Amino acid sequence: MSQFFYVTTPIFYVNAEPHIGHTYTSVVTDTIARYHRLAGEQTFYLTGTDEHGDKIAEAATANKMTPLEFADRISGIFRSTWDEVGFSYDRFIRTTERKHQRTVQDILQKVYDAGDIEFREYEGSYCVGCERFLTDRDLVNGLCRDHERAPELRREANYFFRLTKYRAWLVQHIQDNPDFIRPERYKNEVLGMLREDSGLDDLCISRPKERLHWGIPLPFDENYVCYVWFDALINYLTGIGYPDAPHFDDYWRTAEHMIGKDILKPHGVFWPMMLKAAGLEPYQHLNVHGFWNLADRKISKSLGNMISPLAMKQKYGFDAFRYFLLREMSFGLDAAFSEEALIARVNADLANNLGNLVNRTLNMVARYTDGKVPQPDTTGEPEDRVSDTAARVANAVDAQIRNLEVHRALASIFDLVNETNRYLETRAPWTVAKDPAREAELRTILYTACEALRVIALLLEPFLPATAPAILEDLGYPEALLHAQLPQDAMRWGQLPVGLKTKKGTPLFPRIEAAPDDSAEG
Ligand code: MSP
Hints:
The protein is α/β, with parallel strands linked by helices and 522 residues long.
């Protein structure tokens, strides 16, 4: 039986264009999806746009457009941007799709029929930026801590989802499944939100139509539309064809949600409870990453300081930008973005370590063995060290990816890059080549370096999907990727066919000389 794997990004609000935050969530998701595909799993990667709610309606009005016209435009920009940077998503969902409306109404009706939705009057501080009523904890000096704007006082009769009924169940579920929410700090944060004294309240899930038209109508009261978060979370079900698409259950059982820490509460608290109330199993894991900061402030569209993925692609190439994002941020913690840091990393790791290894290996094969992967002769301890490192690294990368330690997985791959560079330094094939009597030894050294490159390229594909195939192409072995099964094919030493015609190739990552003057921050 084939194994299934389902991974999601958050769906992006269409009130701003793609920036580094959206891009990071998506780069990690794309990397994970690519790895699982190469591991032979039947993988489904869902992304898309979140198009209802006050915030979108407000932005549309400001742009003199209808909400749908506005959503069409920005959703289109997200989609074309993701296509241009090469994300390998399987479905791009929009919450304005009819199919999604039907799913939301179906779930609402189920939860209503189960008696978990009640009609009540409520008054509170509401932040339009967050699209929710705030608690005291969300306020700093009377302002929303995320949006730095004053909340509005709102009084409304509304429908409430009885969250509190599921509090104890969720605490138990988290305790029984310790990696349900990871890394651990976020599990602890959610457990804090669920403490009896945390002030957790039932969740308002409706908006009166007289105030907000831009939403999905409640199936049991046409005077109301659905709260945007309730609508948005359900995209994860619509995306894989809830309720009766052929593999809905197979995929849902494996669901991995990737999110940033700002949306922990809806995903860590509301969502599992909604699923429980609708009679569905919880997702498999919630994977939470930190924030990219710039000059000590959170980068977000509300604060208006954006870094555009397309501008980064144009300046540095998308693989270089991708590499920086994946390598620089420890998954789960915050990180600082600067172009200086990006340039330093790309130069050190990609131009120097990886780029040099590829270039000098292929140059020597061209010069010493007629541009063909040579037949190795007797191997010894130095060769064993390289092949042992390859097997150890392939194994480690598999575990690290499955544990969402993407930054560590990259560091592991570079252990092999460094080990191979060291191997070349000690074996000095350029010296060996001067002595015709050592021709067999030369072949062994160059085969070892080429075979290490095959393993490195296979393992790098999920992280650097444009560069890794180019390395295999230069080795004369592009089909290695087509039939690869990770981690096994990276662990099994000696698969590179002898006699492949290699190419010298252009440098993969030319050194970036200095920080370009024109900043990409807009
Ligand atoms: N529409 C909601 C998600 C609904 S999911 C059912 C939303 N959209 S968003 O467009 O505002 O943000 C999408 C993602 O970008 C979130 O994971 C968020 O954490 C991430 N980021 C936004 N700014 C960020 C940084 N500065 N750094 C890292 N990621 C951040 O929230």
